[in-house]
Amino acid sequence: MKLIDVWVSGCFGVVFAALTEYCIVLYLAKDKSLAVGGVGAKDAQSATRRKRQRQQLAAGVERMARLLLPVGFLAFCVVFWASG
């Protein structure tokens, strides 16, 4: 495998990871509650709590990705250029 193949594979990996993270965050942040007539207050509170938990989880994934993706790519670059 040539060095350009390693570089392109690493870059594809980072882009794939970023797109996967984006899809996960969108899926978690999506509002899955459907407005149904006659829903009780307890059910509404439960749905609101689940929605808030999913949004907090999505925010946590986003924060981790903001840190890990650039640091991971930087580490890949350092190793790549140091060994090349």
Brief digest:
The chain is built from 2 helices and no strands. It has helices spanning 3-29, 41-83. The radius of gyration is 20 Å and the shape is elongated.
Outline the fold blueprint.
Elements: H1 3-29, H2 41-83
Number of structural units classed as domains: 1
Beta-strand portion reads under 5%
The Cα radius of gyration reads 20 Å
Shape: elongated
**How confident is the prediction overall: mean pLDDT?**
89
Helix share, percent: over 70%
Structural class by SSE content: mainly alpha
Report the span from N to C terminus.
Answer: 13 Å
Elements, N to C (H/E): HH
* Tally of helical segments: 2
- Main pleated sheet: none
DSSP strand count: 0
Residue ranges: pLDDT <50 for 5 or more in a row?
A: none
Please provide a written account of the structure:
The chain has 84 residues and is mainly alpha-helical. It has one domain (1-30, 54-84). The protein is 83% helix and 0% strand. The protein is built from two helices and no strands. The protein has helices at 3-29, 41-83. Helix 1 runs antiparallel to helix 2. The longest helix is centred in the last third of the chain and has 43 residues, at 41-83.
Write a concise keyword list for the protein shown above.
84 residues, single chain, mainly alpha, elongated, 83% helix, 2 helices, 0% strand
